[in-house]
Amino acid sequence: MSDQSRQKATVFVGGLDNQVTTQTLHDAFIPFGEIVDVSLPKPELQSSTDPHRGFGYVEFSLPEDAREAIDNMDASEIFGRVIKVNQAKPQKDHNEGLGSKTAVWEQEGYAAKYNAVETDPNGADNDREDPMQGLEGLAEAGPRPQ
């Protein structure tokens, strides 16, 4: 199965109680089709007493089964908590986006996307003088003494 078809056959289940196990999720979603895999990601901190991070993934053998599960299980209850069921999204690289450990402006592609060169309406580059130029040597903010 290709990654894209696997992605379409996987659902995200959020808002899970700590009592929920992979067997609980399997039992809750089996009426909608053959389940290939159920996973509950563990907390990042090993010292945490939580058994999982409060969400999980259920992978079906067919994308139609995943769609059916989303339609029927979204906003239902498991262990007294309302769960959210959506199509799973591709996993981000840990060095991308807001959750990364690298500053957004230092990530590859950021400069190309957001640092556009200012141009005037005629298409020529504006070579404006930088208003901060020459302020490096000042000891305090404010106007220069006369």
UniProtKB/TrEMBL annotation:
Region (Disordered): 114-146
UniProt keywords, alphabetically: RNA-binding
Key word Zinc present: no
Any GO MF annotation of the entry: RNA binding
Residue stretches making up the RRM domain: 9-90
InterPro entries named among the record's database cross-references: Nucleotide-bd_a/b_plait_sf, PPIE_RRM, RBD_domain_sf, RRM_dom
PROSITE patterns: RRM
Organism from which the protein derives: Hortaea werneckii EXF-2000
Domain of life: Eukaryota
Name of the protein this chain belongs to: RRM domain-containing protein
Pfam families registered for this protein in UniProt: RRM_1
